Amino acid sequence: MTDSWRQPRRILMLGLGILTAIFLVVPTLVVIPMSVTASTTLTFPPEGFSTQWYQKMLTDPSWSNGLAHSFQVAILTALIATVLGTLAALGLVRGRFPGKGIVNAIMLSPLIVPLIVVAVGMFLLYVRWKITGSLVGLVAAHVGLAMPFVIVTTSASLRTIDRNLEMAAQTLGAGPFRTFLRVTLPLASPGVLAGALFAFMTSWDEVIVAIFLGTVRFRTLPAVIWEQVNESIDPTVAAVSTTVLAVTTGVLLLALLVRRRQSAQ
Amino acid sequence: MTNGADQNGALVLPPALVLRDLAKSFGSTPAVDGVNLEVRSGEFVTLLGPSGSGKTTTLRVIAGLTTQSRGTVEIGGVDVTGFPPYRRNVGMIFQNYALFPHMTAAQNVAFPLEMRGVSRQMIEQQVANALALVRLENLGQRYPRQLSGGQQQRIALARAVVFNPRLLLMDEPLGALDKKLRDALQLELMRISRELHATVIYVTHDQEEALILSDRIAIFRKGRIEQLGTGADLYDRPLTLFVADFIGEANIFRGRYQTEPSGGWLVQDAGRWRVGSVAAGRVDLMNGAPAALVVRPERIRLDAEDVAWSSLSNATAAVVTTALYLGSMSKYELRLSEGGTVVVRQQTGIGGREYRPGDRVSISWPIADGLLVADAD
User: Fold this and answer.
1) Can you tell me the ipTM of this complex?
2) How wide is the angle at C-alpha B290 spanned by C-alphas B286 and B293, nearest 5°?
3) Where are the alpha helices (DSSP H) in B293-373?
4) Which helix (H) or strand (E) holds A142?
C-alpha cells in the first residue's frame, strides 16, 4: 500500500540523483577522452587515439616545468604545513593562555576570508619582499592556506586522546617531549596524516594565488593551464587536466585507505 | 638520602612518604585542605572516602600530576615538591588502565625501562619477569584492545612495577571491573605488593576493599584526613560520627553527652543510654555536648521479651519489623519502644532463635560495646 505512492517518488529521487551526479562528474571526466584525441584541436568526441599530448606535456618546458613546480610546491607545503599545523593544534588544544580564542580564529581565518582578498594581499606584500615567482613565495603562501586544514584535523584527533595516557607516560619517566613523540603523536597520527593530504591537495589545485604569485620563470600547473586555455585551445590542456585529476584522485584514495586501515585496527 | 642510624646503630630508613600540610584548591574551592600523612616503607595505605573528598587529588599531587597550593611531599626522605612526575620515580595505576593502545602489552611494560635508558637485553629480561609476576607471560604480543579488563589492569600493574618505583600509587584500579574479577584481582594485588615489598598508596571508595587490602586506612572527608588507623581501629574505635557511619554498618543514637556520679550517659529526647568509661575517656567531650552513641549491629543481642537484663548492658523493648535470613546470618530491623529503629545481625545456628516480624523482643548490648563519638554536625 505504502509502496504505491512511494514508488513514483523513488523513481523521481533516483532520476534527480543520477542527473546531479552527471552534472557534477561529467565536466570533470570529459577531459579524459579529450586528452587522447588524435586531432590538434580540443574536440568532443575525440577523433582517433594518440598519446602525443601527454608527450608534449612532458617535453614542452612550459608544461613540464609547471608540473615539476607544482609537485615541489605541494610536497613542501604539505611538509611545512603539517609540522606547523600540528604544533599549532597542540598549543590550541592542550595549552592554556590568554587570547587563545583569538589565536584560534586567526589561524583558521584563511578558511573564511575570500581567497582573492588573500591573493591580492600576498601579491602586494611579496612583490615588496621580492619573492613572487619563486618556490619560497608560493610555498609560504600555500602553507598559510593549508595550515588550517592540518589544525582542524589534528585538533580533532588530539581531542579524542585520553589525557590519562599522557599522564601515565609522565609517571613512567617520559618528559614532555618524549611523551609527545611516543604517545601523543602516534595517537594523533590519523588527524596529522589527513591534514597532510589535505595540505597537499590545497596547494596542488590552488589557482588564484598561483596566478597572482606566478611568473613565467616559476609557475605551478594550474596557473599554466589558466594561461594556456586563454591563449590557445591545445589538447595538451586536457592531458594536463587529466594528470592533475589523477594525482588528486590518487591522494584521496590514499586518504581513504589510511582511514580504513585505522578503523580496522 | 637521609638514611641514618639510631642510638643502637640500627639503620633507620626514612619514611617512604611524608605529606606535610598538603593543600590544593581549584579556584576558590579547596579539594585538599591540610593533609598530613606518614607512610612507612612497605606499608599498604588506603585513602578511603566519598567522591569529592580529596583522595584522588592527594594521589595526583604525590605523583606530581597536580601541583599543590601548599605543603610538601617527601618520597624516601627526598623533598620532591616541585619535581615533575617523570623525575619522581613513582609507579601509578589508573582506573581506566591507561595502557598505550598503539603498543603491545610487552611494549607497554618496556616503556618505563626505555625511558630510563636500560639496555635492550635487560629490558627483555625485566619485561619477561614483570609479565610472569602478573601471570600473563603468554600475552605480551597482544594489543590492549585484545585483552580483557582484568588482563589490561594486570599489564598496567606490570608496567607500574617493572622499574622498581619507590612508591606505587593506585587510583581506584579495580573500579571498572565486575565484582568477581575485583575479588580475584584484590588477592593478586595483595600477593604482588607483598612479593615486591612495595609501598602502596591506594585510593578507593569501597570500604570492604580498603579493609581487605590495607595495613592502614586514611578516611578522607572534605579534603582532610578524618581518621588514620588500621581497619580494626576505624571499626572498633572511630573518633567521629562520620568515620563510625562510613566504615561498616552502624546504629547511631544521637543526643547529648551527660556526666553524672553514676557514669556517662547519652541522653536522647525519649530515653537515655549508659556510656562505658573507656568509650567516654577516648573522646574528650564536655558535659552537655552533642554526641552520638554508635552500636554495631552484631553487638546487639536479641532475647525474648521477659529476659532479665544485666546491669552492665543497655537494654530496651522492641518490635521486629523486618527479618531477613541471610544464610550464616539473620538481619533484623526493629522499632524501639523509645521510638527509632535499630538493625541487628545475629549469627544463625548457635542456639539463638529466629524471630518474625511482629515479635516483641528485648534488645541489649554490653555498655563497653557502645562507641561514643562527637557529633559535630
Assistant:
1) 0.82
2) 100
3) none
4) helix A135-159
Those of residues 135-174 in B touching chain A at CB distance below 8 A are 159-160, 163, 169
Contact between A171 and B84 using a beta-carbon 8 Å cutoff: no
Beta-bridged to residue B218, according to DSSP, are B47, B228
Residue type at position B167: L
Average pLDDT along chain B: 88
The residue type of B361 is: V
A3 part of contact set with chain B, CB < 8 Å: no
Q: Is A193 an 8 Å CB contact of chain B?
A: no
Residue with cell 573507656: B278
Give Rg (Cα) of chain A. 23
Distance (Å, whole) CA B137 – CA B360: 61
- At residue A18, what is the residue type? I
Contacts of A173 in chain B (CB under 8 A): 86, 89, 112, 115-116, 163
Q: Which residue has the higher pLDDT, A187 or A2?
A: A187
Q: Quick one: pLDDT band at residue B115, thresholds 50, 70, 90?
A: very high
Chain A interface includes B351 (CB < 8 A): no
Task: Look up residue B98 and give its three cell numbers.
Answer: 591507561
Considering only CB atoms, which chain B residues are within 8 Å of A164? Answer: 94, 96, 98
Mean pLDDT of B298-327: 83
Convert the pLDDT of each residue in A25-36 to its tens digit.
888 888 888 888
Angle CA B194–B200–B204, to nearest 5: 115
Asked whether B44 and B31 are in contact (CB, 8 A), the reply is no
Using pLDDT thresholds of 50, 70 and 90, give the confidence band for residue B184: confident
- Look at residue B12 and give its three-state secondary structure: strand
pLDDT of residue B263: 78
State how far the Cα of B17 lies from the Cα of A71, in Å rounded to an integer: 60
- Note the helical H segments in A52-114: 52-59, 61-94, 100-108
Indicate yes or no: CB of B111 within 8 angstroms of CB of A169: yes
A174 CB neighbours in chain B (<8 A) are 86, 111, 115
Residues A174-212: tens digit of each pLDDT? 999 999 999 999 999 989 999 999 999 999 989 999 999
B96 touches chain A (CB under 8 A): yes
Query: Quick check: B49 and B222 in contact, CB under 8 A?
Result: no
Set of chain A residues whose Cβ sits within 8 Å of the Cβ of B104: none
State the pLDDT at residue B280.
Answer: 67
A167 contacts in B (CB within 8 Å)? 63, 65, 85, 92, 94, 98
Hey, of B61, B83, B86, which one would you mutate to test binding to chain A, going by the most A CBs within 10 A of its CB? Answer: B86
Which chain A residue is nearest to residue B163, measuring alpha carbons?
Answer: A172
CA A71/CA A220 separation, integer angstroms: 8
